[in-house]
TrEMBL record:
Domain called LD-carboxypeptidase N-terminal: residue spans: 2-52
One Pfam family hit: Peptidase_S66
Name of the molecule in the record: Muramoyltetrapeptide carboxypeptidase LdcA involved in peptidoglycan recycling
Record key words, sorted: Carboxypeptidase, Hydrolase, Protease
PANTHER family for the chain: LD-CARBOXYPEPTIDASE C-TERMINAL DOMAIN-CONTAINING PROTEIN (PTHR30237:SF4), MURAMOYLTETRAPEPTIDE CARBOXYPEPTIDASE (PTHR30237)
Source species, domain of life: Bacteria
GO MF: carboxypeptidase activity
Record family assignment: Belongs to the peptidase S66 family.
Database matches in SUPFAM superfamilies: Class I glutamine amidotransferase-like (SSF52317), LD-carboxypeptidase A C-terminal domain-like (SSF141986)
Annotated LD-carboxypeptidase C-terminal domain residues: 126-252
Amino acid sequence: MIATIGGDDQITVLPHLDTELITANPKPFFGHSDNTNLLLWLRNRGIVGFSGGSVMVHFGRPGAMHPTSAGSLKAALFTPGPYRLTESFAYGDKDLPWEEPGTFDTEPVLEASGGWIWHQPDHVAEGRSWGGNLEILSWLMMADKEIKAPEHYEGDILFFETSEEMPTDVEVYRILRNMGERGLLQRFAGVLVGRAKSWFFTNQDTDRATAQRQAVLKAFAEYAPDTMIVFDVDLGHTDPQVIIPVGGTIRIDGPQRTITVTC
């Protein structure tokens, strides 16, 4: 099952899901952004889902699917076992209007990037993956849905990214601070942070990625200062996008500078 796109109200659907039916007939589910709701619902019931791969965004990318996105998606669909994520040195986050036919004539123009940014990469961290879109995680915490006690996440790997609504660095810090106050940040063995989107039709902020990175570092310095963090991993709302198994295993090898996911 592959989600068409995200949204903002999937949290209202969760109470209507048939747990017995779904757990008796599990299916691989792909989606990101608002689909974080369903992905964590599935994880809590022992079903590994996949963060990434929306139809309209990635299958429908102008020109063709990005090779990095395609390779990661094929691995998740057809090749069980470990898959080493590809580091991207060019990315795109500038959207074009879908209602314009010319939008789909050529592939998006990408900008050069510096690849992954490592913080405290002096060891190896490995654990079950948990996370998704940061705004959705905050909503789930406010609604007290699908968020378990902090000890449940001991040794897990946190991954998160922000959406095209582009929360400010202050908002990002406050969400993480509240996760720290809840006792969550201290539990994770390592963290992957998606490349921050800094452009949308109604908002352009070229300094957002740097400011957001500083917000994340500030929060972890206060609550979990020894945590290894990798920034600018292509796991969110930018192009390309790699697939992250939710409830699978992530191995972050700091000395080797590699990230490997396993379904």
